[in-house]
Amino acid sequence: MSGTVGQVIKCKAAVAWEAGKPLVIEEVEVAPPQANEVRVKILFTSLCHTDVYFWEAKGQTPLFPRIFGHEAGGIVESVGEGVADLQPGDHVLPIFTGECKECRHCKSEESNMCDLLRINTDRGVMLSDGKTRFSKNGQPIYHFVGTSTFSEYTVIHVGCLAKINPAAPLDKVCVLSCGISTGLGATLNVAKPKKGQSVAVFGMGAVGLAAAEGARIAGASRIIGIDLNSSRFEEAKKFGVTEFVNPKDHDKPVQEVIAEMTDGGVDRAVECTGSIQAMISAFECVHDGWGVAVLVGVPNKDDSFKTHPMNLLNERTLKGTFFGNYKPRTDIPGVVEKYMNKELEVEKFITHSVTFSEINKAFDYMLHGKAIRCIIRMDA
């Protein structure tokens, strides 16, 4: 890769020219990295619901043309001025949020919400100069959450790259860049169930299944999956779910159903849907005295959380989490090691695989609920 250092690279990228329209494989130009930036060769990437949501431009201000993608694994091609802890050849996972290591949040052991590099879905340019690093025939193409991994090469701020064990297979661990780490960390880092305790997980999508996986790793005795789609239960069993509740099958609030099942409530609950009613149910289904509920899903902007104050006064705890409380550069290499040590099972999250030229199939799988994660092979 040394021959490309400092040069504009021409490569293939899947460009979204319009909201909701199929991506088009184009030859684009990728500029060299500037100060505190890294140019990465992407080997494997994956599709997340966040990509789909902003590609559809639901409730958002469209920013097109754009290169989406933020779950990926790659190799450093070159680094810009000021980058000291990465070098060409390093294996990295791009992360949609960052860790500058200098701000108050980064220096706190209790937060992972970097002031400089916190997720920004509206910014389609790089921080250093307010410009994009992608173009086609002189036309700028916007970035997405600072990663834009649906391109054979991309430029990313050094604070949004986790350097990982080079022995880790990138076609597997690339899925740890977003949703799976979010759900896993919500359970292990925030809910923190003790061995033998009960855990309820609301939502059996990728994030919820990762939360269940965290409960399995923690040694939970009962893992109750809650979802409106009963067909998801069989798949959920692979992630340690022992019981399944579909709220539509009951004529009472699901929190009451769970309380009856567990002699007063579960020890921990993790909500992974973004539904405000699911959030309320998750909180109200935990046991008084010690129960902890963790909110992961993102609600609609006009939603409001309502519960009786006695639910708090009776010593139930309500928490929220962002990216599972993992600091990207500091903690994600350790999540990869959980996989390498066979503590975390990643393969069961990967249900499909396509070539880069077939990337629109990955969108179809996601839109029709067929895939947990679909790997996109960039060299195929």
UniProtKB/TrEMBL annotation:
The region annotated as signal peptide is none
Q: Which CDD domains match?
A: alcohol_DH_plants
Q: Where is the Alcohol dehydrogenase-like N-terminal domain?
A: 35-164
Gene Ontology terms: cellular component: cytosol
Any idea where the Alcohol dehydrogenase-like C-terminal domain is?
206-337
Localization in the cell? Cytoplasm
BP GO annotations: formaldehyde catabolic process
Domain of life the protein comes from:
Eukaryota
Give the record's subunit note.
Homodimer.
Family per similarity comment: Belongs to the zinc-containing alcohol dehydrogenase family.
**Can you say what this protein is called?**
alcohol dehydrogenase
